[in-house]
Write a structure and sequence with these properties.
With about 525 residues, the protein is an alpha/beta fold. It has 15 helices and 22 strands. α4 crosses α5, α4 packs antiparallel against α7 and α10 packs parallel to α11.
């Protein structure tokens, strides 16, 4: 049987650009995983691992022109956006190298024996070790930062876990180019190339999560696809952790005082956030609670003006375009829903013919019956440049909508200056209310833009994520580690990280005290 070709496709035209690879067979997936598994011992060396991560960042930066050109040809995201994304990607790699060098990620804890306690305490020494081979499922909307060289790959390699990436079909040429650079960096750092491998094809992705030598998985994508893989990971004879980012509505609440104070500013800011990257951000604000009345009307007018000026754009692929057009039509057809700026196919195009989409937004009264399942569509993510304004008459109506929402990556509050300063209203209670919904809470900002920082959390209650971990920031490395405690083990038999003399100079917590070296 002939291998199924993997083509690079231009979303601006729908035309095939080049055949990049063939979909991986079961034997090829098995070979990639086994080769990655065999590289674990080499990757365990911390200085070599640090050098590898930094070399990978350097090679990616040195190849910026080729990477940006390849990614733009396959995604239509544009050179400016992709140049910034590459900078984020290489920053992540260097940040994880710094984290490995500093050593706190190992969370070394030592409790010395204390026979005077009741009951007596034995000597305990604890740190974290890598899980093993990690399967990474690349995202469509970030061909670099959440793909082959992205955060899941960088954090897993930093933890000491080899990676096999299931490339996304929307950018196979970019994936192949980045994989070749990572493998070159491994080779030049003295590691086997197979610490990073890439496979293509839907069935390859299924085979990957089921492989007995795969110890964990990271995923960024749709609820349907992510849930299927999550279930497969749980159904294995030995289940594995599956850290998935699946979907998010990212609600925004505009208080009456905020609308009175700066309606136009909020409307214009919302337009920018919902259309950024053609609305293809996982943290796009998809539901905005806006007060009824003149101030809310001013906000909606500003949003209308700004969105109407947005040029038609190209989505990542034609399947997503069709889903966007169908999804916005279904939502717009619900009774009580209006479209001040109608989203859909680009000018002169139809759902079946064309390459672009038009941004828009829908409005609906917040008081719609809670039991009407048809309106549940409005509370589901619609990927692309559209948002829903739910107009509420008072806090009870706004709260009723919030209580219907599933988990989210983010929740945003637009407050007045007095509310933000704690001098007016019940802003603190509102912060507490949305905290239950999301992994990141913002005040007077927009969620599109997830800083790579030690305190960042990019995750949230299901279906935003399938675990309580973050996929962005320094603590993303924790997903690929497990703790081990050694009880009354002679010093000579301990790993160097836990030996009394601390030969590696690692930060450690002694007898429950503060971290020291």
């Amino acid at each position: 049987m002939a291998a199924t070709p993997v083509w690079s496709v231009d979303p601006r035209t729908g035309k095939q650009l080049e055949q990049v690879a063939a979909e991986a067979t079961s034997q090829e997936v098995d070979g990639a995983v086994r080769a990655a598994h065999a590289s674990r011992a080499a990757l365990a060396d911390r200085p070599t691992r640090i050098a590898f991560l930094r070399a990978a960042a350097d090679l990616l930066d040195a190849s910026a022109a080729a990477i940006v050109a390849a990614a733009d040809a396959e995604t239509a995201l544009g050179p400016v956006r992709l140049t910034g994304e590459l900078a984020r990607t290489t920053y992540q790699l260097r940040a994880f190298a710094d984290s490995v060098e500093e050593g706190s990620y190992l969370d070394v804890r030592i409790d010395r024996a204390d026979p005077g306690l009741a009951p007596p305490r034995p000597e305990l020494r604890r740190y974290k070790i890598p899980l093993g081979v990690v399967a990474v499922y690349a995202a469509s909307n970030f061909p670099l930062a959440f793909s082959v060289p992205g955060g899941d790959t960088a954090s897993a390699l930093a933890a000491g876990c080899p990676v096999v990436v299931k490339a996304h079909p929307d950018h196979p040429a970019t994936s192949a180019l980045c994989a070749s650079l990572l493998r070159r960096a491994a080779r030049e750092s003295g590691l086997p190339e197979d610490v990073v491998a890439v496979v293509h094809g839907f069935e390859a992705g299924v085979e990957l999560v089921r492989h007995p030598l795969v110890a964990a998985a990271g995923f960024t994508g749709s609820i349907r696809g992510g849930r299927a893989l999550f279930d497969a990971a749980a159904a294995r004879p030995v289940p594995i952790p599956f850290h998935g980012e699946l979907g998010s509505l990212n609600p925004v609440v505009v208080t009456p005082a905020a609308a009175a104070e700066r309606a136009e500013e909020i409307g214009e800011g919302l337009a920018g956030a919902m259309t950024l990257g053609q609305g293809q951000f996982c943290v796009k604000p998809g539901l905005v609670l806006v007060p009824e009345g003149p101030d809310g009307d001013r906000l909606a007018d500003a949003l209308t003006t700004a969105v109407a000026k947005t040029a038609p754009g190209v989505l990542l692929d034609h399947r997503m375009r069709a889903d966007f057009i169908r999804g916005t039509q279904e939502r717009g057809a619900l009774p009580g829903v209006a479209a001040p700026v109608a989203p859909g196919a680009g000018p002169g195009e139809s759902a079946a013919e064309g390459h672009t989409v038009t941004a828009g937004y829908l409005t609906v009264p917040a008081r719609l019956p809670a039991g009407d399942e048809a309106y549940g569509l409005l509370l589901e993510e619609c990927f692309g440049p559209v948002t829903v304004l739910a107009r509420y008459a008072g806090p009870d109506e706004a709260g009723a909508v919030l209580r219907r929402l599933p988990g989210n990556l983010s929740a945003t509050l637009q407050l007045s200056a007095a509310e933000a300063a704690g001098r007016e209203g019940s802003a603190a209670a509102l912060v507490a209310e949305v905290t239950a919904l999301a992994g990141r809470v913002l005040v007077n900002g927009w969620p599109t833009g997830v800083a790579v920082a030690p305190a960042q959390h990019h995750g949230g209650p299901y279906p935003a994520a399938t675990s309580h971990s973050t996929s962005v920031g320094g603590t993303a490395i924790e997903r690929w580690l497990r703790p081990v405690a050694y009880q009354s083990v002679p010093d000579a038999l301990l790993p160097p990280e836990l030996q009394e003399a601390n030969p590696l100079g690692l930060p450690r917590r002694l007898d429950g005290g503060p971290v020291s070296q």
